Amino acid sequence: MGESASAWREGLVRPLSDAYAATPDVAAVALSGSAARRTADRWSDVEVMVCWSRPPGEAERRESAD
């Protein structure tokens, strides 16, 4: 189940990851945890790291995720 559950989770968060990656002050976006290791199961959550080149304001965080 790991490969298919991981791929499903990756596809689920792809639009969010792409939106953050297109934000000018975002330096990196990464999928982590079991989905990134390709060992996710039906109980796994999804962890996404967003690394900014400077601290974002609250409005910027919300705007990127919309």
SSE layout and pairings?
Elements: H1 2-21, E1 26-32, H2 33-37, E2 47-52, H3 58-65
Antiparallel strand pairs: 1-2
Describe the structure in your own words.
With 66 residues, the protein is α+β, with helices and mostly antiparallel strands. The chain has one domain (2-58). The chain has three helices and two strands, in the order H-E-H-E-H. The chain starts with a helix and ends with a helix.
Series of secondary-structure elements, N-terminal to C-terminal: HEHEH
Unreliable runs:
none
Radius of gyration: 13 Å
Portion in beta strands: 15-25%
What level of helicity do the residues show? 40-55%
Query: How many domains?
Result: 1
Number of strands: 2
Major β-sheet profile: 2 strands, antiparallel
Helix/strand/pairing category: alpha+beta
Gross morphology is elongated
Number of helices: 3
Strand order of the largest sheet: 1-2
Our measurement of the CA-to-CA distance between the termini, rounded to an integer number of angstroms, reads 30 Å
Q: Residue-averaged pLDDT, rounded?
A: 90
